[in-house]
């Protein structure tokens, strides 16, 4: 409670009865909770991102399904050559927003940033026999449970391993066991398992803004556990910096030179 208040978040303590009103199927042993009114969530990150893409195209943008293998500075106003897997492209300004893979593009340019992946997993239960009115975060077991368009999703865990190591599906499977401890009568159907990357920095802040040694090269990565939440304000800040507009917040704490 104290932490929530320190961050200006209104939180209401829940006793066993209040908890059961929100989650009628919750295990009898769980007797305390904290309600954060108005906490937002998405029912489909995939549809959210697809819709943003459609809005971009409707506004005149173009989506090119290519992978950049190397960014080559051409010097001054000539900008950059992007050596892609399908074509070469040139641009005066480039934003590198390639998540946990970003070092593969920055290391060859001599731009050193401490970035690692915190791998996480989810188990999507497509046809659960219980429904949740609102998402739930189970702090002592380190996972979240969200009612979504395609079912009930349990997501969480932190695994430190390399970017290209194969997923450890047991980490996703154990999430289902955790959920059953919280909702003992849950029948999950056949879960779908997933592994994703959290692009994480040592100070848990993203890396945003121009690279001082490479004018025209902008960075927007390193959102760690909060990329879905942090992406929009970061995108706005980087757009303001590219367009020379007054930034809404001070970009200095997010500079790649802070490390
Ligand atoms: C289990 C789990 C739960 C999470 N829950 C939440 C949550 O509740 N709320 C929240 O805010 N965040 C959450 N996150 C974190 C969030 O998913 C990340 O912070 C976010 O995805 C990072 O966004 P990004 O765009 O920087 O990177 P990504 O989403 O990884 O996107 C990077 C994109 O760049 C592309 N790319 C990479 N290299 C290249 C290249 N060379 N050329 C071209 N394209 C390239 C990739 O294909 C990808 O499309 C969670 C993460 C995990 C794993």
Describe this structure in words.
The structure is a single chain. This protein is an alpha+beta fold. Among the domains are: 1-37, no CATH class; 64-115 and 203-258, 3-Layer(bba) Sandwich (FAD/NAD(P)-binding domain), CATH 3.50.50. Helix content is 24%, strand content 29%. The protein has helices spanning 2-6, 16-22, 45-58, 103-106, 169-182, 227-243, and strands spanning 12-14, 33-35, 68-73, 80-84, 88-91, 94-96, 116-125, 136-138, 143-148, 151-160, 192-200, 207-211, 214-221. The strands form four sheets. It has a five-stranded antiparallel β-sheet with strand order 8-9-10-7-11. β9 and β10 form a beta hairpin. The radius of gyration is 21 Å and the shape is elongated. The two termini are 33 Å apart. The model has no long low-confidence stretch (mean pLDDT 95). Bound molecules: flavin-adenine dinucleotide. Flavin-adenine dinucleotide (FAD) is lined by residues 67-68, 97-101, 105, 120-122, 155, 196-199, 221, 223-229.
Silhouette: elongated
Amount of helix = 10-25%
Summarize model confidence as the mean pLDDT.
Answer: 95
- Total strands: the figure is 13
Radius of gyration based on Cα positions? 21 Å
Total count of helical runs of at least 4 residues: 6
Query: What ligand molecules are bound, each kind once?
Result: flavin-adenine dinucleotide
Provide the spatial order of strands within the biggest beta sheet: 8-9-10-7-11
Q: Structural class, please?
A: alpha+beta
Going by CATH, the homologous superfamily of the domain at 64-115 and 203-258 would be: FAD/NAD(P)-binding domain
Summarize the helix and strand pattern as letters.
HEHEHEEEEHEEEEHEEEH
How much of the residues is beta strand, in percent? 25-35%
Low-pLDDT runs: none
